[in-house]
Automatic annotation (TrEMBL):
NCBIfam families per record: PRK09301.1
The name this protein goes by in its record: Circadian clock protein KaiB
Domain of life: Bacteria
A Pfam family annotated for this UniProt entry: KaiB
GO biological process: rhythmic process
Domain KaiB as annotated: residue spans: 6-87
Length: 97
């Protein structure tokens, strides 16, 4: 299964950079070879943000697999991101049981 993700950011702010770094780390460790990421700067592409109904940045949108899910913030809460994306690694599963 391939995850199709969109990360909406606003320029190169510290919050946006942190979200990019956190997403990259999560994708590399949890989805290695099974993801596509599209980075959208709402300052440069406001129409795309409008279509996806993005009201705050950074926002991560999981387009596939359906259903579409959104996570707002810098993605620093790893457990919240994994739950939001329906990704469970063995460490997370052990601590939540």
């Amino acid at each position: 299964m391939t995850y199709r993700l969109r990360l909406f950011i606003t320029g190169r702010t510290p919050h946006s950079i942190r979200a990019l770094e956190n997403l990259q780390e999560i994708c590399e460790t949890e989805l290695s070879g099974r993801y596509e990421v599209e980075i959208i700067d709402v300052l440069e592409n406001p129409a795309i943000a409008n279509v996806d109904k993005i009201l705050a940045t950074p926002t991560l949108v999981r387009k596939l697999p359906e259903p579409v899910r959104k996570i707002i913030g810098d993605l620093s809460d790893r457990e919240k991101v994994l739950l939001g994306l329906d990704i469970y690694n063995s460490d997370f599963e052990r601590t939540s049981n």
